[in-house]
Design a protein that fits this description.
Blueprint lengths: L1 E8 L4 E8 L1 H7 L6 H18 L6 E8 L4 E9 L3 E8 L12 H5 L6 E8 L9 E6 L1 E4 L2 E4 L3 H11 L5 E7 L4 E8 L11 H15 L4 H6 L2 H15 L2 E3 L3 E2 L1 E2 L5 H11 L1 H11 L2 E4 L6 E4 L1 H9 L3 H4 L8
């Protein structure tokens, strides 16, 4: 199952989402060979990116990027507004040396260097127009005490808190076959919930959070979103009303292309590319997200720098690779 379900509570100013990802998550893993503890962290961020992308009000991409000087040097999850996602992670140490019981803080926040970056990139962004980007440290500062975050859910909550977004609660779970997540957001007391006075709205938000806190990792990883919705909010639905919307499909998809690799070669510059050709005979690279291999021989590289026609610069390689 690869499904995301959105719901609204009529008796409380709350919007929620439940996601369950199986084969799309396995499509990410089959292209990677990361230690189990790294897979769990990556899976949790895949769940978070999918949940956050479902509320995008534009056609574009949400990108979660965590970087540090720890064993996980870089983690990237991209999810488009149509819930097509891809993910990758780069380690700074040998995979066998990673402690199987290492915490997120130990892997992503060594020496308090971890940073979480969330980027919103509209597909119609004009040249020169920067995307929206929010950055938070992967630590919570309480006076003079620095407390590293312990989970992806805590990292996302810290980001939402610091970026002055709506009050948000998120629960995430992942294993080698499934990713699951639950997100609750408090909506403004105006609009569709203007009939609620502030006290009733506050009580409703507290009540829905309390129900959400009863979710378990096993349920997130084994039950469908519809079943989870009934399990958590059956009584709330009967008494005040809970409305769900048609489920949306989640899928794995990569946006890499030969044309984009050609752009990278142009950025490297002709002199640098010529030195690679002299040493290796061809420029070969592999997509970090889907592991697709690209090969540019000397003829291909000359076309990249000499032609103005994109089709010529990115023609299929004559060697068949």
């Amino acid at each position: 199952m690869n499904e995301l379900l959105v719901f609204m509570c009529d008796g409380a100013p709350v919007r929620g989402e439940i996601v369950s990802i199986s084969s799309a998550w396995q499509a990410v893993l089959e292209r990677r060979n990361d230690p189990p503890v790294v897979r769990r962290i990556l899976g949790d961020f895949v769940g978070a990116a999918t949940l956050l992308s479902a509320s995008l009000k534009f056609d574009g991409t949400l990108i979660i990027q965590a970087q540090s000087k720890g064993p996980i040097q870089l983690l990237v999850v991209e999810c488009k507004s149509d819930l097509t996602m891809r993910a990758t992670v780069k380690l700074s140490v040998d995979a066998d040396s990673i402690d199987p019981n290492a915490s997120l803080g130990e892997l992503l926040d060594a020496n308090n260097t971890g940073r979480l970056v969330i980027t919103l990139d509209p597909s119609d962004r004009q040249p020169g127009q920067p995307p929206y980007q929010g950055i938070v440290a992967l630590q919570e500062h309480r006076g003079t005490v620095i407390k590293p975050v312990t989970s992806a859910a805590e990292a996302i909550a810290l980001y939402m808190q610091n970026s002055e977004q709506l009050d948000t609660r998120i629960w995430l779970a992942s294993n080698d076959t499934h990713v699951g997540g639950l997100l609750l957001q408090r909506l403004p007391d105006s609009g569709g919930h203007a009939h609620l006075d502030p006290q009733l709205a506050a009580e409703g938000w507290t009540r829905i959070q309390t129900l959400g806190e009863t979710i378990t990792n096993d349920e997130l990883l084994s039950l469908s979103p519809e079943t989870i919705l009934r399990r958590l909010f059956l009584e709330e639905s009967a008494e005040s009303g809970v409305r769900s919307f048609p489920p949306r499909s989640v899928r794995f998809g990569c946006r890499c292309s030969r044309a984009k690799v050609a752009d990278v070669l142009r950025m490297l510059g002709e002199e640098e590319v010529e030195s690679i050709l002299a040493e290796q005979g061809a420029v070969e690279t592999e997509c970090d997200f889907c592991a697709k291999a690209y090969r540019f021989d000397a003829v291909d590289c000359r076309q990249v720098f000499k032609t103005d026609l994109l089709a010529d610069a990115t023609r299929p390689p004559s060697s068949g690779h």
